[in-house]
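Folded chain entry —
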Amino acid sequence: MHSLTTRAYVSSAPLERAEKAIARGEAATIRSVILRLEVGVVYCRLAASSPDEPAAQRIRLRAHAALESAVSAAERLLLIGNDRAEFDAKAENLREALRETF
């Protein structure tokens, strides 16, 4: 009986480690998506301050691509609670910055 109990404990440890690793990976992915939105806002600021219009246009396109990439990635994530609120706020911030620079 003791060996069965030990075996059950040993077999559950890898599952617990896997669940924790998945959770850490999902948290990192969510953070990465939110950072894309923040980088997009920085691109907008750079575009607005660039005296070179062709360069500014390329930077604006990068900002727009950051938004599209973040939205696309977010569709595959389970964003709830604070993560959803932060994503929505930062996405709207980037959309506003894009409206101001285009």
